[in-house]
Amino acid sequence: MIHIKKKGREPNAWMRYRLTKGVEFSAIPELKDSLLTEQGYLCAYCMARIDKDHMKVEHFKPRSRYPRLKFSYKNLLACCLGKTQEESHCDTSKGNDEIRLSPLSPSCVDTLSYESGTGAIRSSNPYYNRELDRILHLNTPIIKQNRLKVLQGVIQALRSVGGNSGAIRRILTEWDSVDKEAKRKPYCGIVIYFLGKKLGRKV
């Protein structure tokens, strides 16, 4: 999970849609496009690759509890479909639960760390940590395995170039940015954390 920075304004097409009298909530294409671009085409929670045909629009504050926020662009996130053979995760397992751990809040994201040996995500805040495990299910075996595989690939790449600070910075820049299609690399959170620690960043 990394900090998601919302655009200053909602998409014009979404504003026109939500202001239409009597309209029900629907994830129109322009809304999906905007959320995907903001998030680098990654799930807001597990950071798997998503696209317009393989995603859900999540209400961070559940609309069942906060109906006034149903159309609020600042409350909307793009998420994966949240299904594995093991168990549901992300928005699918969250359902109507309300959580405190928000990818929209840098102070929340700053509490997160990753275990380089297992791929597990943790928080220094006990409430957030409980939500990671019990509500979002972000430490299911397949998600940990995917994170670990990505990290191991980066570690191998570092070894091949000597692992000096210049190489670490170049690789970190690559993983902490978007490509020409506005896409981030899947599961980049664990790589950014790992390389940041190597450079002595405060993480």
Question: Can you characterise this structure?
Answer:
- This protein is mainly alpha-helical.
- The protein contains 8 helices and 4 strands, in the order H-H-E-E-H-H-E-E-H-H-H-H.
- The strands form 2 sheets. The protein has a two-stranded antiparallel sheet. A two-stranded antiparallel sheet has the order 3-4.
- A hairpin with a 6-residue loop joins strand 3 (112-114) and strand 4 (121-123).
- The radius of gyration is 17 Å and the shape is globular.
- The two termini are 13 Å apart.
- The model has no long low-confidence stretch (mean pLDDT 93).
Q: What is the chain-wise order of helices and strands?
A: HHEEHHEEHHHH
Rg over alpha carbons: 17 Å
Helix content: 25-40%
Major beta-sheet overview: 2 strands, antiparallel
Portion of residues in beta strands equals: 5-15%
Helical stretch count?
Answer: 8
Shape: globular
In the sheet with the most strands, the strands line up as 1-2
What is the count of β-strands?
A: 4
- The structural class is mainly alpha
Any low-confidence stretches, pLDDT <50, length ≥5? none
Let me know the average pLDDT: 93
Terminal-residue CA separation: 13 Å
Give a short summary of the structure:
With 203 residues, the chain is mainly α. 39% of the residues lie in helices and 7% in strands.
Labels describing this entry:
single chain, 203 residues, mainly alpha, two-stranded antiparallel sheet, two-stranded antiparallel ribbon, 8 helices, globular
